[in-house]
Amino acid sequence: MLQTDLDLLILGGGCAGLSLAIRLAEASGRCRRVTVIEERADYISDRSWCFWRLGPHRFEPLVARSWSRVAVRSASQAVTADCARTPYQLLQAGAFYDYARHVIAGSDAVRLETGVSVTGIPVAVAGGWRVETSTGVLTAAQVIDTRPPGLPRSGNSTLWQSFFGQELVCEQPVFDATCVELMDFTDAVPGAVAFTYVLPLAPDRALIETTLFDPHPRGPSDLAELQRRAVERLCGDVPTRVVRTEAGILPMGMARDPGSRDPPGRGYLRAGLMSGAARPATGYAFQRIQHWADVCTEALRCGQMPRGHKPDPLLTRMMDRLFLDVLRNQPERGAELFLRLFGGTDMRRIVRFLSDRGTLLDRAAIVASLPPGLFLRQLLRPPQRDLAGA
Question: What is the pTM of this model?
């Protein structure tokens, strides 16, 4: 049997790969030889992860801002919800990357190599896997691949959540720093659910983000004009300065359950945003990745096979799929649905449901807030062709 260089090779040093590496660096157990390879030569603050605080968590010292109110609005209606018991928190990627690199640097078991790319398809060998990289060949008993399995394509997901955001500094106070504009549907886009997302970092500073729920993935150039109009509407004639940008495309209901994909082989696991980490109906992934990292690390420490992302409960999957099908087929109803949801449901129930902690009563309350006829008609629609074959 081949003697491998590593116990574990993590492909991709993004949120999922680094979250797992942090925990193994803290206590590796039987997983003593771990390397993370990341194609980026250096890290920049390219993401903003937000979630509701349900209790103490390991990243609290890194939280940049917390808010006790969130708003959902359209051109004619607005709903503001109190979330003081479960504040909405912001963790910026730059702080997370710095923390991860600091923890890994202090470990004898885990190494992070940046500026390294995978140059060939991983190959199963006796006792593990052989991976060709830009700096040479690595062999590992187990591989966790957190890289996207492919580019986002129309038909591979029920909807894609595409976003383009700019962090702006204004010369005058413009924003209400106490309230997140979770969804502002003022600027409609035919055939898609479009909204502006505003994280007010200070009265004169905010992350303004244009988001589309669309069957087709959209890049920053597709969203640039919508973003320009949103900034103009929100900031008026006040001069602004862009200090950073961020963009991304998140899956909302993959055509096939990632867990059902044929794995490359024993000891090779796919994980991360495109492999089950993102909640289909929301795109929220950070807390789900942290839970996966805890579970997977415990298995690796004990010398077991790595664990993948656990599928959502059947009822959650059914609710998410139905909601996404309605948004796909009637995107013009999106603003109405979210306004009814946040205006007609106790915020604590919404937070639990969106954070994968929902009870049966929470689910019932959410269903009761939405128009039953719309969802019943969707259930009675003839089944569509498998999206993967579209």
Answer: 0.92
